[in-house]
Amino acid sequence: MRVIVTGGAGFVGTLIARRLLAGPVEVGGGEPADVDELVLADLAAPAADVAADPRVRPVTVDLVTQAGDLGRADVIFHLAGVVSGAAEADFDLGMRTNLDGTRAVLEQARRQPEPPVLVFSSSVAVFGPEPEPGPAGVVGDDTLPQPQSSYGAQKFIGEQLVADYTRKGFVRGRSVRLMTVAVRSGRPNAAASSFVSGIIREPLAGLRAPCPVPPDTPVALSSPGRALEGILRAAAVTDADWGSRTAMNLPGLTTTPRDMAAAMDRVAGYAASDLIDWTDDPVIGAIVRSWPARFETRRAHALGLRPDRSFDDIVREYIDG
Fold it and tell me: CB neighbours of 54 closer than 8 A, spacing ≥ 6?
């Protein structure tokens, strides 16, 4: 089996790579099989343990102009993209990477003799109330996306492209809308949601961390393990079990920064949250508050996917990780 992961050196891409290399995986309802070659397309180098596997082929490409260098694949995980805050700050960069890059990957897949399974990582940032950002209600599988950011708009357009390429028989597409993934290891990134990991990761390391939204701001999130489970499940199921060509909302846990901080203190056994600086950034706050925080995910539930039980469990997963 040959697999391509765009954004393969990123946080989620690295999780997927490690799982793919660990043993047989199922694709499109077929029999589980081992990965013979794993192409990791990214501008950065993959993690050392991943790169050490002889089946891994790192490829440094500009997807817009060099997607053809990726070659054929049985399954493509398209994760590459510019994150929310960066896409809002640099409109042209977001459009080129998130929109033009996605179409280039789809065109490369279209040229294959057999349509590959293609999993596109979208985001709950496609949702948002009109006409002004504010608290959103419960979002279901059929809720109409109304993005309130350039990133959300770019992801929604990507979903529609995947759906139409699937309708035409060019790919076997499955778009999954990820919740904010926390707790991410490593350094903060330019995502508007980066603080969700930062207010846990940094205090547990003895560092101060800003929270740019009010403590009781509702957010929907999932652990890295649950996000990985959802992405791999999307690749594994048959076309019939996947069902609608529309994007699927993955399950999420609804919480607040205040409750997250309390969970961290309970699990850590000390007041790590004293290192959180509670600020209010109007730019980040407007983006975060435009995202819904409460979901009904019946399609994902039918595939056996569930949200995390508590944020305490997520903190434990991070500490044990």
Answer: none
Contact 129, 146 (CB under 8 A): yes
Spell out the alpha helix ranges (H) of 98-222.
101-110, 150-167, 194-204
Tens digit of pLDDT for each residue in 262-282?
999 999 999 999 999 999 898
**Is 264 in contact with 229 (CB distance < 8 Å)?**
no
**Is 165 a known active-site residue?**
no
d(CA 231, CA 59): 22
pTM over 0.85: yes
Burial grade of 284 (CB within 10 A; 0-12, 13-18, 19 or more): buried
| Contact status, residue 27 vs residue 4, Cβ threshold 8 Å | no
Q: In Å, how far are 90, 188, 216, 224, 252 from 184, measured between CA atoms?
A: 24, 9, 21, 7, 16
CB of 152 closer than 8 Å to CB of 139: no
Q: Which among 151, 165, 270, 318 is annotated as catalytic?
A: 151
The C-alpha atoms of residue 119 and residue 122 are separated, in whole angstroms, by: 9
CA dist list (Å): 133 to 125, 258, 286? 12, 22, 7
Cα–Cα distance for residue pair 215/279, rounded to 1 Å? 9
Cis peptide before 292 (omega within 30 of 0): no
* Cβ within 8 Å of residue 90, ≥6 positions away: 82
CA dihedral sign, ordered 45, 192, 147, 310: positive
Report the distance separating Cα 136 and Cα 148, nearest Å.
12
User: What is the number of other CB atoms lying within 10 angstroms of the CB of residue 213?
Assistant: 26
Burial of 195 from C-beta contacts in 10 A (0-12 / 13-18 / 19+): buried
pLDDT, one tens digit per residue, over 149-181 is 899 999 999 999 999 999 999 999 999 999 999
- Alpha-carbon span 77 to 40, nearest angstrom: 10
